[in-house]
Amino acid sequence: MPNLPNVVLWSIPAFVLLTVLEIVSYRFHPDEEEQGYTAKDTATSLTMGLGSLLFDAGWKIPILAIYSFLYELTPLRVPVLWWTVPLMLLAQDFFYYWSHRGHHVIRILWACHVVHHSSRNYNLSTALRQPWTSATSWVFYVPMILAGVHPAALAFCSSANLVYQFWIHTERIDRLPRPVEYVFNTPSHHRVHHASQGGYLDRNFGGILIVFDRLFGSFTPETTRPVYGLTKNLATFNPLRVATHEYASIARDVAAAGSWRDRVRHLTKGPGWQPGTTDRPEGNAA
């Protein structure tokens, strides 16, 4: 297995530089309609990002053990070559789409992902607002391991996907040329994903590509200016509360449920589900 670079680690200087440049751009070219940066929100995003690095280091141990066990079970092997890496990136992006979509429509998964949507600002620091319970995604990539993709190659593809998504968390870039907008996830598409308006909820789940949203009916173009955040926003910048608030809400609902069936539904239905309501998942509900 060839050594593959740690894409996230190598990208940290670029993350810092681009964030500083964006902050400076707001100082010299302010836009009253754009959210820009606020000190408390940015500090929370950076704290969540640093925390995620620490927690992810712990989560990787059991996940790597499971992946390694499954990799040894399968007789298939995908070599890491110049032409297989793009195919692995494409496969990882496909499974990322379904993982991301699942994290919006299954409440126990949303409890992890809601962290990333909890900012009412939308800037490059928002990309760093990552959860501390990211072990909820690993099962979606099991098919790649069983197909013979080495766990290290999957980690490389996942890191590349994450790094790509950094630059699309901005209001400073308008629409790009139509061929780019049609194929790739762009700032315009991802602004829709982070919006809390009803018509924008649970849309545009793509990582690098937007074509899977177009294929599976979850694409919505940016038409009106997005309002960022949750349908019920948090009244705190406390990182611990940001990281755990939805888990606490689930625990309260499960404790108050009148039956075991409803307790299970509070975990598996959409974030907006309550007994007596239709199963209409609303991924930005809180």
From TrEMBL:
Transmembrane segments: 7-28, 48-68, 80-98, 138-164
GO biological process entries: lipid biosynthetic process; membrane lipid metabolic process
Keyword Oxidoreductase included in the entry's annotation: yes
Domain of life according to the entry: Bacteria
Compartments, record wording: Endomembrane system
GO CC terms: endomembrane system; membrane
Region (Disordered): 266-286
The Fatty acid hydroxylase domain, residue ranges: 86-218
GO MF assignments: glyceryl-ether monooxygenase activity; iron ion binding
One Pfam family named in its UniProt record: FA_hydroxylase
Alphabetized UniProt keyword annotations: Lipid metabolism, Membrane, Oxidoreductase, Transmembrane, Transmembrane helix
Membrane-related topology note: Multi-pass membrane protein
UniProt-listed PANTHER family: ALKYLGLYCEROL MONOOXYGENASE (PTHR21624:SF1), STEROL DESATURASE-RELATED PROTEIN (PTHR21624)
Protein name: Sterol desaturase/sphingolipid hydroxylase (Fatty acid hydroxylase superfamily)
Organismal lineage: Bacteria, Bacillati, Actinomycetota, Actinomycetes, Kitasatosporales
